[in-house]
Amino acid sequence: MSKGRAEAAAGAPGILLKYLQEQNRPYSAQDVFGNLQREHGLGKAAVVKALEQLAQQGKIKEKVYGKQKIYFADQDQFAMVSDADLQGLDAKIVALTAKVQSLQQSCRHMEAERDPGVEEGMCWLQRETKEYKSSHQPRDSGRERAGVQREAEVLQGVEEAQEDGNRAVGCNSGRIPQEQEAVL
């Protein structure tokens, strides 16, 4: 057993007693292990041992159902709740339930009152946006760019052909060809 687990196992009875008292409901050893494993790093054997130890000391109660053992906090340690307190809690529950129902009713009412013009306006805006986007596509599309490049190549070819034709004829716009300049 690692040093951390050994320390956790030593403090396991206190951790488990506190947990069972706070939750105040029955648990099996597997449930307690699953709920406290991440927080405290307790192993299953340490949990089972600590629960049995607490049950023998009388700090918690243990019930056996076949092979299954259930552990829970001793109910004698908790103060008795008076009937007046229970009635007060029941009244709070009834009031809060009525408030929830009222709020749900008002939500349904508000949803029913939604202005249909708003939805129509949203649809119109969506259509207009779609139409605007389709009519204002950027001009730098792939096809258009390829077409412009082809046109530029054709124009460059035409210019080169004109220059070649001018050289053959000897017409160079008043300029002396470079070969002749070297001779002069």
UniProtKB/TrEMBL annotation:
Listed InterPro entries: Hop2_WH_dom, WH-like_DNA-bd_sf
Homologous-pairing protein 2 winged helix domain sequence ranges: 12-73
Name of a matching Pfam family: WHD_TBPIP
Compartments it resides in: Nucleus
GO MF, one example: recombinase activator activity
Family designation: Belongs to the HOP2 family.
Protein name in UniProt: Homologous-pairing protein 2 homolog
UniProt lineage: Eukaryota, Metazoa, Chordata, Craniata, Vertebrata
